[in-house]
Amino acid sequence: MEISSVIATAQSYITRQYEQHADPVLVYHNLAHTLQVVSAAEQIAAYYRLTEADQLVVYLAAWFHDLGYILGDRTQHEAAGAEAVKTFIAQQQLPESIGQAVADCILATRIPQHPRNLVEQIVCDADLFHLGSKDFSKRNKLLRTELELATEQKISGADWAKSSIQFLESHTYHTAYCRTLLKQQKEENLEKLRGKLEQKLAEALEEKKDKTFKADKEEMKEGKKEEKKEKEKKPERGVETMFRTTSTNHIRLSSMADSKANIMISVNAIIISVLLSVLLRKLEDYPNFILPAIIFLTTSVTTIVFSVLATRPNVTSGRFTDQDIRSKKANLLFFGNFHQMTYQEYEQGMETIMKEGEYLYSNMIHDIYNLGVVLGRKYRLLRLAYNTFMFGIVASVLAFTIAAIFFPVKG
Question: What is the CA radius of gyration of the chain?
């Protein structure tokens, strides 16, 4: 039995069948796929050093395994291919046992695969060899296109990625050779699919947001304002980030201003206590230090006053009316506007804000503006406190120096 001549005859027969029954739908299960499976089968078979009979079984199964796609019912293509190879074996006057072995190999490729011996395992792994190759992405796209053409239904990128991930996760190569050779690339292909799925889901979410925004905008043009008010409008990420960052920066700057003011208050309180407890008792003996001491004391007191003004809280009336809510004048994000209200009144006002996106944005803008105004006042007073302390200290030191040198106390 010449294996090479039988294989050559099978190759010519299969090639002729695909050329005579060309189907534009079969962009994946075509002659190119069959050639790839044959090549993979030859590679795996060479590793296991099969007998001539087993080699013939593997090669014929690789050539005929998808022939059923062009012969009849595609859902039962394995059975059609098995029958076709039996007919071919009989025509070649080969033993019936070989025909049955080849048919069993083809039937074993049906998903989920259940090979019972080494030759069936080799054919099954050759059929799905591309799952662990760098060619996987291209082949997977062709399979998706074929299914869309066959069913005349569009398959979304996310759905296809999900099904592909499930298939790769459930699949295991049957031969040790393929498990060792293809494991790493298969894992890389799986990770790429997972990344693509995340990307598709994110794109779908963004597309949904865009559609919602366009629908709301169209309703405004058509005058459907009441219906629009009932819809919850979610702020975009960029807007949320802007408000969050701005508020955080303002609060941090306010905290820094309070800390600086506390430093000024503490330092000057210590200076005043020293002046009152030590220096003032010596002024009778050193009258030339009276003016410098007054300058020093005035500097410290003025600095403390400015620092206290910078940190002194300003509490408003803490009440708002229903009219303020309806006219969108009440800012409920600032405690000073509601601390005198009952919980029920405040809750009702907040529910009104949350239902109207524009009102919510208006409150947030108003709140940030007020924070900025308060922050500007704090830093202005704090600057006055620091300037007063700086120039006052310099003036006091100069005054003490002049008094000690030019107006010494005469003994």
Answer: 43
Asked if 120 and 105 touch (Cβ cutoff 8 Å), the reply is: yes
**In this structure, are residues 244 and 368 in contact, taking their beta carbons and an 8 Å threshold?**
no
Q: Are 338 and 332 in contact (CB under 8 A)?
A: yes
- Token pair, residue 322, equals 């229903």
CB 310 within 8 A of CB 257: yes
How far, in Å, CA of 319 to CA of 344, rounded? 13
Residues 6+ apart with CB under 8 A from 104: 82, 116, 120
Question: How many Cα atoms are found within 13 Å in the side-chain-facing hemisphere of 289?
Answer: 18
On the question of pLDDT at 80 being above 70, the answer is yes
CA distances from 299 to 34, 155, 279, 396, 404 (A): 95, 78, 15, 8, 20
- Please give the sequence-ordered ranges of beta strands (E in DSSP) within 244-316, or none if there are none: none
Instruction: Give CA–CA dist 85/93, Å, rounded.
Output: 12
Cis, bond preceding 112 (omega within 30 deg of 0) = yes
Average the pLDDT over 117-121 and give the result: 95
CATH C-level class of 3-127: mainly alpha
Mean pLDDT of the chain, nearest integer: 83
- Residues near 248 by Cβ (< 8 Å), separated by ≥ 6? none
Q: Between residues 57 and 241, which one has the greater pLDDT?
A: 57
